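2024-03-11 09:14:02 DEBUG pipeline.ingest accepted 1 chain
2024-03-11 09:14:02 DEBUG pipeline.ingest length=436
2024-03-11 09:14:03 DEBUG pipeline.predict start
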Amino acid sequence: MTDTGKHTELAKRRKAVLPDWVATYYEDPIDVERGEGRHVWDAEGNRYLDFFGGILTTMTAHALPEVTAAVSEQAGRILHSSTLYLNRPMVELAERVAEVSGIEDPRVFFTSSGTEANDTALLLATGYRGSNQVLALRNSYHGRSFSALAITGNRAWSPTSLSPVQTAYVHGSRRRGTALADLSDEDFTAACVDDLEDVLGQLHGNVACLIAEPIQGVGGFAVPPDGLFARFKEVLDRHGILWISDEVQTGWGRTGEHFWGWQAHAGSGPPDIVTFAKGLGNGLSIGGVIAGAEVMNSIKVSSLSTFGGSPVTTAGALANLDHLLAHDLQSNAHRVGAVLRGALDDARLRLPHVADVRGKGLMIGVELVRPGTGEPDAAAATAVLEHTRSAGLLIGKGGLDGNVLRIAPPLSLTEAEAREGAAILVDALTGAGERP
């Protein structure tokens, strides 16, 4: 690929004005200039197959014509009005989201991000229950605000022990590196339910909610056994505790099997609250909360959102959601994800440093360790990122130790593109296993 050293000057300017803790990928960061379909181009003209979608945000495709047209048309009318006025695109999008929500008598509140959506869900749950006690999963991540970080169970993203809520962490998704690693799905689920019961027994009565990602995103795509949260809900319902499903990364059909991640755990009914963001806007800044009317309307003071549900954002998001549904991209994620997953599963059999390949649909994690010791190998993950970038493929990484590759292309990925990306990734993984 073309030498990317010309990005150095922009990287220096960025460092001079942005905080040090706002990290970038790659030793020589990429200046992404444009995108189309499943590809992006940097300022030097290098083309990349995008298997990360701006952190699971480009849900359908880059520069989707329907979204571009909807945004342009709405921007030509009015960009902003706030929730103090009637807003047709916001109402129409809320109707569509409510229709596909799976929640009884749903109400929808739009925000500007997933972080703000989870903040709002915590506000609803703690107010409704009259408690600031919150349950969250170990290894979890729910955003970067003060309250969202207060429920984050991933040490790499927790900068402070200060908290507006009292959080207790329970087992639920992460297995490797824990005493539960070798249990069967059935035994793992039973152990997690016992752990939940034990933690509840140690708290002071009234607990507001359990918040959980159906598949942990930043946590390295850690996947619980299907039905685990249904078992959790049986316990929660006995105590009147609300279940919040954080669908910021799993929503809109990404898992292939279901439209929402929680639907793999629907045996005891839907969540009380669902949060969403990222993919709905396809890059536009939008998030939101879905809850039944009783919970959503429990706030008895005046409130509003200046930017949540803005006309231009909701117009674009509505066009994006309509495209997703009309083209059944959930089914495509299931079919093409199996092609990608199959290639990685085959590679795992001959690569001892690949400890696990996991995920669903087009949400796949590859965990790397040091052969012989099983210790997390973050350096290998970084090396794979650099290798794939040089070969024209963008992926992500995460996990508790930064040793899990995160693969999440737009849901319109073709089978040919899946095979192309898989070949690059397997080559990079093979090279990482041969390094000293």
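2024-03-11 09:14:41 DEBUG pipeline.report The longest strand covers residues 354-360.
2024-03-11 09:14:41 DEBUG pipeline.predict end
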